[in-house]
Structures are given as structure tokens and as C-alpha cells.
Amino acid sequence: MSRSLVHSSARSLPLLAAKPLDDPTKAIAATLKIDPRDSIESVRSNLSALGDLSHLKFNCPHSTLHNSTRSPNITIPMQLDTIFQAVGFGNSNAFSIPAMSGINSAFVHDIFLPIAINNSLPQIPHQENFIKPRGLDGSQCHLPIQTNKFYGNLLSTNQSTPIWTNPYSLWWHPGGNGTAPGVDVAHIDENQKVFGKGNSSANAEYFFSPVGLTSLRFSAREFAANHCHLILDSPSQQSINMNIDANCGSLKLPLVQGMAFVTGIYSNLVPQFYSTFHIHSLTRVHSAPESFKYLVHLNDSKVWAVYIFPNAGTFRIDFNLHIINNSFIEASCEFSGVIQIAKIPITHTGHFLNTECVEQAVYDFHAGSYPTGVTLSGCVGGSSGSYSFNYVVCSLRGAPVLTYLFPHHVASITEGLKTPLQLVSTVRGTMTAFFGNRLTFTETDLPVYVGFMPYSPKRPFACYSDLQLQSIAAAAAKEAARDVVNESNLQSMYFSGKVLQKYALVCLVVSSIMNNKDLTDKLLANLKAAFARFSQNVQQHPLVYDITWKGISSSAGIKDGTIQDFGNSQFNDHHFHYGYFVHTAAIIGHLDPTWISDNKDYVNNLIRDVANPSTSDIHFPQFRSFDWFAGHSWAAGITPRGDGKDEESSSEDYNFYYGMKLWGHVTGDEVMEARANLMLAIQKRSMNSYMLLGSTNKIEPKSFVMNYVSGILLENKLNYTTYFSGLEQCILGIHMLPTTGISGYIRSAEFVRHEWNDKVASLISSVADGWKGILYLDYAIAEPAAAYDFFANRAFNLSFLDDGMSLTWSLAYSASLA
Questions:
Q1: What residues does the Glycosyl hydrolase family 81 N-terminal domain cover (predicted)?
Q2: Per-residue model confidence as pLDDT tens digits over 305-318
Q3: Among this protein's residues, is 673 annotated catalytic?
Q4: Domains of the chain, each with CATH number or no CATH
Q5: With 807 labelled, which of 74, 94, 174, 618 sits at a CA distance of 20 to 30 A?
Q6: Which one of the listed residues 648, 653, 673, 700 is annotated catalytic?
């Protein structure tokens, strides 16, 4: 059987069948043992027999992203070129060998440069949102307001719903039942978490940390007699300030993700603390000069350290805290200064009253330092990239700030010093405290080698048999003839985007694999026309620019606050929805670069809405969806959530940043492309820590990991379900779709194989709708031949394709990896 090879670094590659070699090239080819089905490691090994490889052209496998101005390439000698062509590799214009020492691309010193700073899309009208931020300082309402961050509940109608900085949770308590208003603080240990069993297996269906268990409440005597309100200011990427004002004084709490201390800044108030647990004891212990330290032992056996730093010149030796009753602690006098609390881990190092234990020693050293904000910085060079959290620090005694980090941080940190302090998070395992006013993390496997076509780390070249090409061509002929313009004319940005990306991938196959120019031109013209409906903003529910929160959203629901199109006007799921459009635009621009100029502003504005990289761009919040501390995006927008922000689909999350990467490439925006590569690498690490699980996962509870996916990941809960169905094919499949060139980078073949064997195999025969195709196309990452056979079956039922899938792409994807 003859085979043809397509290397995905070719934009439009002729299909070359293997042909007989003439004697000289046959002898050399036999010596090199070059075969298009070889792994790249084998090709490298055989080429090394040549000795000096300085004349070879090196570039990345499975990539359309080669460009001599950005990657240092050198030519392939004519002799080798002839050999490669003879064995089916093509010629030097279509084939390149991966560099032995990794991938080189432009070095980007600052990946957070703005995409643009204007707001010039005349086709998108401005509209006020029915839902307004609550409690935000009026002087800041003209600025972009974050909609999908950890503190979102504070900006909602019910400000008393908890938020999670991790490891702590906090919430505003309006007072009542004899208690004054204030900010409640809690930390839940692993043995306090609640697990629920599913009906179909012994695995836990969900687990969460109980809420409302107040360890200590920051309050003041004066609050009880005043009508206090919560005022918020300085909302940013990883921080916000909570303020409570009384007529005579105030309390400010700067909240930052990962903060080791909860800090209250008092001004002219008598501090007061309340607990839902009985206070077992209050012990004053040795402290630094002109400061105080107390240990609060609660009857839940938990111990909290309290550090008190009066303002300069206000230290009073007679100041003290004392127990009023079983639930109240109060200061002896008015106070201005800083009070910090921190949960003490009780470990084998000793009893909590042993102030020499190492955990308390760490807290003691860093007490008096606290962050008030965070800025991001980052750079990318080749396949490595780094990002830093630069803390804005107030340090009363000169110590660096102490921060609790998630496991995915610990695995990648390259700047910052580790301590023995550990506390469990809500749903992301055990956090470890590091100190440093700047913490830097490095990823060394950026997907610079992943382009438009399917990617597998083991198969750098895509080989297709004649029979496979015939099957792909037959499917493409039918699907390319469909009416993409009307099929994408839907009331939903989400479902319309899925249709557009489906046909964009068909067009990519027709061009890059089939090399069928006539069919490409026909489908591409229809795809452009379908996309134009949205870029011209004449779809059924046009987009608007939301002047309340600052962003681009659907007009459906924005005037009355109703949930339409999954809550797009409430800033739900923007990365899911717009990712399909960005990916589609990248493919169109890849196939026809002349199309880019007329559509660049529209696509860039969709990207800015979701992932504006710079605070210099005042028309959108910085990184609305992506949480640099969590390592992935959040889907929930401006409506309150009892368990915090959520993410239901890991795959539609990275689909956005994959589309952004490709769009950055076709538009020549090296900064955007580099930034997307780093974000994808971060997602790979975080998602394989908290969303894509299995027996090898040591972070999540043993009783949950064999579900294989998180289901809905919330800040305070993992729930093995979806919002639309409890069927397992849906729970698993929503973390698969859409399967594209980046899928094999995030979802390893090992994970996919184990998930199939342990979960999918037992249910696949009973699935009779589009989820069957979703499950099988994902299976191609591990077992491409089996997946191809499923799609290539002459009796294949088209109802097994999801509305965002095509048979053309399914065949091409699985065949390319086989």
C-alpha cells in the first residue's frame, strides 16, 4: 500500500506517494534508514551518522509556525533533499527536521504589552448593564471592573457570600444576634470536608468545605452602634480591599490570593473578635519589640496566632486583649495599627504553646509584612517561559512577605524560598508557604511546536494511506457543500462559534491535507461570509460594549439581567464562546492572509475582552477570565455563587488560548503568541493537577480521583457532574471538546488511555448521540487507529457527531496520529 506524508509545517503541501529510488539515493536512504513512519528520535539518530549536520534545516515538528525571520533555519543540501523527497518526505520547502537542542523562537522580554489601547469598533454600540457592582468605591466605577475573580461575590447583590483567598475563606457579616458587623475568617482542615457518594460507583460524587464556620471575625466595638457598610476598592488581578467605616474610625483588610496572614488595619477603633466556636483560651506570648502576640485556642482544637503592631508612637504597655465571653475577645482600649491573624498548623513539631516550634517561628519572622497588591511580569524565550508575582508590600519590620502556594506553583517555582508551613486548600490539595516579595515560576515545555494540525509528541509527521485520503476526501466533499452561512445563524454566540470552528477545520483539511484548491476556495468564501455576520455585528443577538463593567457581551439579557446564551451578558463563559471565533479567524487568516487586515480589530477586541494583558488598556479588565494564581480560567461572571467561581470545561478553556496563539502567529504578533504559549503551559500543569485526575494524582482526595475529571471545578467544591446533565459521557466529554491540534499537548496519551479503560469503555456502547463522537475523537490521542476505524466505518452514523464536529476533521485527526 502506498502512503503519503504530510508534515504539518506546510501551509499547502503536495501529497507525495513513495516512489522508487535511483541507485545513489537508494543507497544513501538505505544507510540512513529514513522512513516517513519513523519517530523523530529515529530520524535524528540516523542523521547523526552524517557527522556534521550544520547544513541541515532545523525547525519544529507538527507546526505551521516556521518562519525564517523568527526561527534560525538553514538549508537542506540538495542530496538530502532528493532523498527526503524520494522516500515521501517532500522537498525542502515543505519539510523540516526538528532542532536537536529544542525550539528557537523570538525572545519576548515582556509578554504583558497591550494588544491595543483604543476602543474603535463602530459596529458595536455601547450599553449599560442592568446589573451593577455593589459596594465599589464610586471613584473607581469608571475603570474596568473584574467580573470573574475570586472576590466576585463581594461585588454582587449578596455580599455576605464567602470568597476564597486560599487557604482562608472570608465573608462580610452584617452583624445581628448580639454581634457587630465585620469580616469573618475561616480555614477548613481536610478532616472537616464533606464528601458525597455517587450512585454508580464507590467514588465520591463531590466534596466541599463547609461554610459559615467563623474562626475569628475582624470587628470593633464602635461597629455595633453604627450602620456600617462594606466599601470595596482597588479590585485587580489578585487582590481587593475591604473597608468598613464607622463615624469615628475605620477598618481596612487588603485581600490577596495566597496571603499567609489575614491583615486588618485599624484606625481609632477598639478591636473586637468574634468566633462561632467557644474560645478555650487566650494566651499572650513573647513578641517582637513594640508589638504583641496572642494565641487563641478554640474549642474545635484549632489555634490562631494574633499579631498586633501599633502605629509608630502609639505603643501602650497596658494594651491587651481579653475574653468578654465564650465567643468574644476585645481590646482594652482604642487602637490604631495593624492586627494580623494566621492559622497554626499542629504537627509533630510540638504543642501550639511551644513558641519555639518551627511553624510559629516562621510566622513570627514574617509577621508585620503583608501584601496590598500584585503585579504580573513575564518573559518567553523558545520553549521556556517565566512569570512572576511582584507583591506590593507593606513591611513594618523589614521581612519579606509570606505566601501560601498551590501544588502546581510548588512544582514550577524558580524564585522564592520554601518554608515548612503547610495548610490545606479548599479543592487544590495542600498549600505550602514561600517567602519573597517576588515569586517566579518557570515552564520549560511551551507548545511552540504545536501548530494548526494534530499534534502528538511521538509522531512528528502525519502519514496518510490512499484509503485514508479517499475517506477524508469523501467526507470533505459532502461537508464542504453544506450551508455554513445559515447553519451558523443562531441565537447563541456559543453554538454559532462551534459551527464556525467546525467548518474552519474542514477547510484546513481540504487545503493542507487534500490540497484541493477549488474546494478550499469555495468553502473559504462561505466561511468568510458566515464570519462576516458576526464581525459586522448583525447576528440575531448583536454584541454590545458594556460601559458598566467594561467589556464586550451579548445584548441578550443585558437590559433586564436575564440569563440568556449561558449568561454571556453577565460575563459568563466568554472564553468558551469567543474561543471558537478566535480559532476560526486564525484558520481563515492562515489560509488567506489578505483577510486579516479587515478583521483584525474585531478579533483582537474579542481577545481583549477575555485576556487583555495590560492595565494600560483601560477599555477591558486585565485578564478577565484567566486566573494566574489558579492557573486556569473561571467561567462564572457577575452573579453570586455559593461555592465561588467555577469552570466546567477545561478543554474549551484552553481552546481559547490555543486560538489566541494561532491568531498571534498569523497576524505576526509575537508577544501574543508567546503569551499564549506560556498560558497553555500553565494550563497543562494546573489542569493535570486539579481537573484531569486518575490514579497517579496525589493532590486530590483518593476517593475522588478515579472519577478521572473534576466535573465542575468550583473554588470551594469539586462536583462530578455538569450543569446540563449528570450522564458520565457528558461529564467526561465536556473536558474533551473540541478536540484540536492542542488537545494532545494538554491531555496525555497515558491519561486518555487510562480514562478510556477505566471509565469510557464500559459506557461507550450505550451512547448513541454526539457524545459518542466526542469520546472517540479524544480516544485518538491514545489509540488513533481504533478511533479512525470508528469514524471510517462505512455504516458510520452521522448522529454520533456533536454539532461542533465534522467527519472530515475526525478522520483527518485520527489518521494523522495513527
A1: 140-457
A2: 999 999 998 988 88
A3: no
A4: 3-86 (no CATH), 162-370 (2.70.98), 373-443 (no CATH), 480-817 (1.50.10)
A5: 94
A6: 648
